[in-house]
Amino acid sequence: MAKKYETRSAFGAVAVAACVVELTGGAVPTEIQLVPAGEFRARDGRPVGVKAWRLDAASAARIIDAAARAVGDFVIDYEHQTLLSEENGLPAPAAGWYKKLEWREGVGLHAVDVRWTTRAKAHIEAGEYRYISPVLQYDGKTGVVLAVRMAALTNYPALDGHSDLAVRAAAKFQSTTQEENDVDRKQLIAMLGLADDAGDTQITEALASLKAKAATAEQKDTEIAGLKASAGTPDPAKFVPLATFESLKAEVAVLKSTQTTSEVGALVKQGLEDGKLLPVQEDWAKELGNKDIAALTSYLAKTPDIAALKGNQSGGSAPAGEGAEGLNGTELAVCKNLGISAEEYKKANKAD
Question: Is the separation of the CB atoms in 147 and 63 below 8 Å?
Fold first, then answer.
């Protein structure tokens, strides 16, 4: 079994391991074992704090799924130089790449699409590199392997004197990952306009609302596009020139005014005949009707008729015995109805 070196960070644990997967015989494999199945420990007693590292079909399935959804490939470098380059300043060339993982029951997790560089193939064929050393992330409470971050060609399967690689792996793949996740969450909360301490439920509800609004907007855009497409070129037969339209409006207004005037005249005439209007009210009634024919109609409906004003009792001539007062029959009837003398009536007309 391979010897493991591991460390913990504030966010979990990472182990740098050199599994006893020997690349000999001159054959360059396209499949390599990364993690053994079941429980395993290092020769020096690691891991600390848990019984053992563990990998089963269920945890392997999660690792395989995450790897499939990852954007890029996973690197195989030389001697974990990817983790050391920040300190020694040397380049970290790739020895190969892999993407597809496969679980083999009772054996372990394998990379099954390894693509080596020409240089790496030459090293392997010459026996200059013999072992595979993966970088693992695991649960610090249960020991379950959570991810395989990368791997390296190495000639130090025990990694004596290189345990600091585990610390570098923890810094690179634990702290960085957690920091990126925190930033993403904060950015998402800010974009959704939520409070800084918004929980998962609030975020989920806000996203659902945003999705619904987006769907509505998309539907409206589709409808608008359909209307634009169906509109096409306007049919001249269905429209009239603006000048013609304005002329028609003016004609309609005149006709309406004429009709109103005619209706008002008829109402006023009828009102006079029915004794609902005095002759002196004729002009007032016409002015009211032209402004608001409904108001005039309402007035005439509510006003009681004056029997003495209905028609002319003497055909417009002064009645016998009353003509000396200089009033005709209608005027005398008004005086009688109002209880005033002919002289008072004449004075009131002169004042008007």
Answer: yes
Q: What are the boundaries of each domain within the chain?
A: 3-187, 242-351
Spatial separation of the C-alpha atoms in residues 52 and 328, rounded to whole Å: 131
d(CA 188, CA 181): 10
Residue 41, φ and ψ in degrees, nearest 5:
-135, 165
d(CA 49, CA 245): 91
Question: pLDDT per residue over 28-44, tens digit each?
Answer: 889 998 888 998 776 65
Looking at the chain, the number of H-run helices and the number of E-run strands are 11, 12
CB 52 within 8 A of CB 39: yes
Write the pLDDT tens digit of every residue in 141-185. Answer: 888 989 998 999 988 653 333 344 554 555 556 544 444 555 567
286: exposed, middle or buried (C-beta count within 10 Å: 0-12, 13-18, 19+)?
middle
- Residue 289 is predicted with a pLDDT of 83
3-class secondary-structure state, position 53: strand
Burial class of residue 251, CB neighbours in 10 A (0-12, 13-18, 19+): exposed
Q: How far apart are CA 67 and CA 111, in angstroms?
A: 11
Burial letters for 68-79: b for 16+ Cβ neighbours within 10 Å, e otherwise? Answer: eeeeeebbbbbb
pLDDT at 75: 95
Q: Are 124 and 32 in contact (CB under 8 A)?
A: no
Pairwise CA distance, residues 262 & 282, whole Å? 14
| Helix, strand, coil share of the chain (percent; to 5) | 50, 20, 30
Measured between alpha carbons, how far is 155 from 317 in angstroms, rounded to an integer?
143
Residues 118-137: tens digit of each pLDDT: 999 999 888 888 888 888 88
SS3 at position 298: helix
**Alpha-carbon distance 330 to 273, whole Å?**
12
